[in-house]
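Suppose you are handed only these lines of text.
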Amino acid sequence: MKLRSLFLTLMALSITACTPAQPIEEGLVISDARVQAPLKGKAITAGYFDITNHSKVDDAIIGIESPISNKVELHKSAQVDGVMKMRRQVSVDLKAGETISFKPGGYHVMFFGVELPHDAEDAALTFKFKHSPDVVIIAEIAGAAAHASHH
Ligand SMILES: [Cu+2]
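From them, the structure of the protein bound to copper (II) ion can be written out as follows.
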């Protein structure tokens, strides 16, 4: 009987030890980040990503910095009287548990004065938040596309 209970205890311990830890998403997680390659001769482009606030605190994106641009702005596109317009956003609220997709036709990032080697494949983006510490991610440079239609 004693031996059996020792065996069960060991079994339980080894199961605990062998169970892989579940990856725990914490803080502000940014995924699918990409920056459109600027059109030929243009120094302006847009960037997109998904962001989820896994923290328990309401937060806000207050800015983005990148070595490829001397001026990065948060923008939001919206239909105004049937015409697509975009407005600069000083910050974008991100409530606890919320996910926001920055995508064409909605929230997006605008990069001005872009300096990018033509064969660049990615660019670092540093996200600044109201509460959380900075998050640095690498965004893929996506092939030249019709960003011009958004202006
Ligand atoms: Cu814009």
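What can we learn from it? Residues 50 and 77 are 16 Å apart (CA to CA). Strands lie at 28-36, 45-53, 59-65, 71-80, 83-89, 92-94, 99-102, 107-112, 122-129, 135-142.
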